[in-house]
Design brief:
The longest helix has 33 residues. The chain contains 4 helices and no strands. Helix content is 76%, strand content 0%.
């Protein structure tokens, strides 16, 4: 079952689990590229990098999934893109807290919130990024 298969505002645990798994995979892939570009000095340093990045990404995914779902449930407006903005912003705020930087948190809040908002709008309106246009 995929993320979009679960109705908005329902089964928050399932939606959070899906976003956490996806973010964990993205964290592992990102760490792999970072390791290739910037070689660690020891195996311990490599393990610390992998753990730090993957746990941060998994946490951001969990925060996004839970915040989006609870926002949809609490507001009584399950299909509104604003719920996705709130979830993306919450993940960005966590990233700012993690890096001890208000500017990083603010920028990530706006960036991730906007990305999530546009993703929901695109899904709702049937936007296509690849393939022939739908007429």
């Amino acid at each position: 079952m995929g993320y979009w298969d679960v109705p908005e505002g329902t089964d928050c645990v399932q939606k959070t689990w899906i976003t956490t798994k996806s973010a964990t995979v993205l964290g592992l892939i990102g760490t792999a590229y970072h390791m290739v570009a910037f070689q660690p000095d020891s195996a311990l340093e490599a393990l610390q990098r992998v753990t730090n990045t993957t746990v941060t990404m998994a946490t951001m995914g969990a925060i996004f999934g839970m915040t989006t779902c609870l926002s949809a449930h609490a507001r009584g407006a399950p299909d509104e893109p604003l719920n996705y903005f709130i979830g993306g912003c919450a993940s960005g705020i966590f990233l700012g807290a993690r890096t001890h930087s208000a500017m990083t948190g603010t920028t990530a809040c706006m960036g991730l919130g906007t990305l999530a908002f546009l993703t929901k709008v695109g899904k709702t309106e049937g936007w296509r990024l690849f393939g022939p246009p739908k007429l």
